[in-house]
Design a protein that fits this description.
The chain has 298 residues and is an alpha+beta fold. It folds into two domains: 189 residues, no CATH class; 96 residues, Alpha-Beta Plaits, CATH 3.30.70.3040. It is built from nine helices and four strands. It is a multi-pass membrane protein.
Length: 298
């Protein structure tokens, strides 16, 4: 298609939207309501995925090192473990740090029985290892325990398995529900656009009678459907993100000290705005494609 012709179709789409004001308003309103539901679902889905990722981060291997291991031995062991393609990160935790963390976890009152252990600390030095794929943590643990300087390795198998099962279940439910919402949105929006095109069937018939090709008739409706989808996404994206920002501020959910941790506003806002707008445009074009087909049959 020539650039001049494309601009002509875009101008016609804008003119048509302005000329059929009330019908456009009805279509944009219906698109907005549907995309508002989809936008709210997206925010919920991103936060569930965020929480599932936070669960995955809790899955790690704690490898207890031999008391005879020197600092150089430990450095070499860390480098060896890092070479494994299954390993995401390795962090050394000295026995002094381990005792300090244990006291913090138990609290001031409950940890009094640990007082005085600094001079004769019974805890081992440890390596905290995270797997690239949390689902393969148990497999990686079996490899880690084979190293000479590793006395024992613990991946908290029972808790780890439950965390991974919950994480996988949540992701599958979110995926299925998301596909269902997207299909429902497509159905509702395409039906709305069908009504706008049906109201203009005489205009299409006149264009055919004067010899316009089917594609020459289709293109302005494609652009119009896409524009209706984009216009219909502005309000739901704005409302959804403003309400979400309010929730974050009220709950202090983007702070490490908040009671509930939610997905940060950025990049969530970028994904919600991008996906919702793109979905509105694609469904608008698709609805136009389906709706105008019946008027172009020979």
């Amino acid at each position: 298609m020539k650039i001049d012709t494309m601009w002509r179709h875009i101008r016609e789409a804008f003119k048509s939207i302005a000329r059929n004001g009330w019908m456009t308003f009805a279509a944009v309103s219906a698109v907005s309501v549907t995309l508002l539901i989809f936008g709210i679902f997206l925010v919920v889905a991103f936060n569930i995925n965020f929480m599932a990722n936070e669960l995955d981060k809790q899955v790690s291997i704690r490898a207890a090192l031999s008391a005879s291991a020197s600092a150089d031995d430990i450095d070499q062991l860390q480098e060896q473990i890092k070479q494994d393609s299954m390993v995401k990160s390795v962090e050394f935790v000295s026995k002094e740090e381990g005792l300090k963390v244990m006291k913090e976890q138990w609290g001031e009152d409950e940890s009094k029985f640990l007082d005085g252990l600094e001079k004769d600390n019974p805890l081992p030095d440890t390596l905290v290892i995270h797997a690239v794929d949390p689902q393969k943590t148990a497999e990686l643990k079996d490899k880690v325990i084979q190293y000479n300087l590793v006395d024992d390795a613990d991946a908290g198998e029972g808790v780890t398995d439950r965390l991974l099962d919950v994480s996988a279940l949540v992701r599958n439910v979110v995926l299925l529900f998301g596909v269902g919402i997207a299909v429902l949105a497509a159905f509702l929006i395409s039906n709305t656009i069908k009504l706008t095109i049906f109201a203009r069937r005489r205009e299409i018939e006149i264009m055919r009678l004067v010899g316009a090709s089917n594609w020459f008739i289709r293109w302005p409706f494609f652009f119009e459907g896409g524009l209706i989808g984009i216009l219909g996404s502005i309000v739901p994206v704005t409302v959804t993100l403003l309400v979400y920002q309010g929730f974050i501020q009220i709950l202090d959910a983007d702070s490490a000290y908040g009671l509930i941790r939610l997905s940060p506003m950025w990049p969530l806002s970028m994904w919600v705005a991008g996906i919702t707008t793109a979905l509105g445009a694609v469904i608008g074009v698709w609805g136009s494609l389906i709706s105008i087909r019946r008027f172009l049959k020979v």
